[in-house]
Fold this protein.
Amino acid sequence: MTETSVPRGDSSRARREAARLTAQDVRGVALTWVDNSGITRVKAVPAGRLGQAAEQGVGMSPVFDVFLLDDSVTTSTHIGGPVGDLRLFPDLDRLTVLAAQPGWAWAPADRYDQQGLPHPACQRQFTRRMTGRAAEAGLELLMGFETEWVVLRDSQPADPDPAYATLGPAYGMSRLIDLSEYLAELLAAFSAQDVEVLQLHPEYAPGQFEVSVAPSDPIGAADLSVLVRETIRGVSLRNGLTPVFAPVVTADGVGNGGHLHLSLWERGRNLCQGGDAAAGMTRQSSAFLAGVLRELPALLAVGAPSVASYLRLQPGHWAGAFQCWGVENREAALRFVPGPPNEPHSANAELKCFDPAANPYLVTGAVIAAGLAGIRDRLELPAPVSGDPALGGGQPRLPQSLQESVKHFQDSAVLREAMGDPLFEAIAAVRRAEVELFEGAGPDAVVAAVRDRY
Ligand code: GLU
Ligand code: MG
């Protein structure tokens, strides 16, 4: 879809879909968008009204653009206050019957104003615009988010010593056995929803798991990240379990990452391989990744958007706390993955410094903008870092607080231009307000405030 296309008006298709849903006993359709604080918000319509929703949209206030993670509201230069209305339009191409929520279907929504023009702060259309920009340069991107989460049993958000649903060791088979039925139900739900799972495994932190899904176009990757998380939430709750998607579950442990994998393509060829630039990638790919690397301190305000994100982003936690890149280097913020020799098409880069508090639409759009600026400026990647950057070598640490990354964000001409002022200023305002919200709060108080929010 291009920048100008409006995903609405096909009411005859929507009415057909509504009839199909009703025949499958689906009662409601959840229309979601993700706000600037990283929370997925929703309006639902009865399945029978999907036609009207696709034709006229569903009303919502623009004030959600300045909501904070605790549901308090700030204001920004262009957006804020109780006045005004927008319309949510479901993307019918992504309409999915939810396996873990009998009676429900889901579709991600785009936001338009009352005149039918794109809402300038619509995050989903931002990533569509950036995908369109890449296409103008003859480039396509494949992207995919990894989802990490911690499974708790009967825990209160403030409990500093949460009850993990399994006590098995990191990557331990015993964790898989402990939660065998739950995990099998999860795989069944993904499969029923046509979500192609690549891997599911216990992770490092107590009670932690990870699922990765097949890459897709940038909007699709962001949509999938929402669907995957809400599916995990649904299956967890049906099993009496509480999933935690916050960047950290305890103040000093290893946290949840929201790593983004990406590869750059031109006319069906993966530019991350088969070239004469660093690590065998093409010059274009090197320039794109150099652009992302240059912009990382500002991108952190998008991809590590919570005060809690900086409790996670620590050296030695495989979270990518240094502004450098390396081949298969899990301590570099940008990890290049050449892939096995017999699968050159799978070469890709992984941004490890991002976490699940991020709005995935903002992440995909902002990363494309930063990469395209790298191509425009003919950047080249510096030498890769081969050891642990924490052990010397002078690699810069990424920002160590939200306050610090917001400063970089506010100075980023690349992100301001790409997002446009209304979206850019709303994000900056939300970040500043969340910094203020947690002023003086210690790590435990931050964890308690965010643990059950995402
Ligand atoms: N849980 C780690 C993080 O916070 C990532 C572990 C891994 O490399 O997958 O990003
Ligand atoms: Mg992982």
About this structure: The chain is about 35% helix and 20% strand. The two ends are 29 Å apart (CA to CA). Residues 148, 203-204, 254-257, 312, 317-319, 330, 352 surround glutamic acid (ligand 1) (CB under 6 Å).
